[in-house]
Each structure stands twice: as C-alpha cells, then as structure tokens.
Fold this protein.
Amino acid sequence: MIEHIPELIKAGIDSFKIEGRNKTAYYTACVTGAYRAAIDAYLADPEHYVMPQFCLDEVNKVSHRGVLHRLLLRSFCQRSALRRQPVYPRL
C-alpha cells in the first residue's frame, strides 16, 4: 500500500496501522521507517511527489503477505468521497 500514499492521504487517512504483531522488530522498523519517509516526502511537496525508491525497496526487502490493494483502496475511497466524514464513527 505504500505506493498509494497520495491517494490515501487525499481520501482523508491521517493514521496508518503498521502490522507488527507476529513480526520481528527488524520488520516493524523497516516498514515503519519506509512509510514515515514516504509520508514526509509527500507532505513536503504534494504537487511534485515521487516516492523515494528506497521506501519501496525497504518494504519489499522484508517478508510480508500480499494485500488486495485495488479492492481496499477503491472501497475506502468510494465510501470516503460519498460521505466526507470518517468511515468509522467516533464514539
């Protein structure tokens, strides 16, 4: 999902859950660092954002299971665009 940082931020995501349960500290550090760098690069200059290659390299270096990127992204963006409010209501 790291390659979709711009779309996710534009859709209103302001918090990312990095799966770390049952993962090594190395995995968590690599993935968290890569996402932090990609998010910071996007926020620094959204108009000219290009994901730093090392971010994608870091995420692909560590073992991870695949995700249905298009399905998740399309589903969230459609719901978010329709309601313009948090997808999960705050209690």
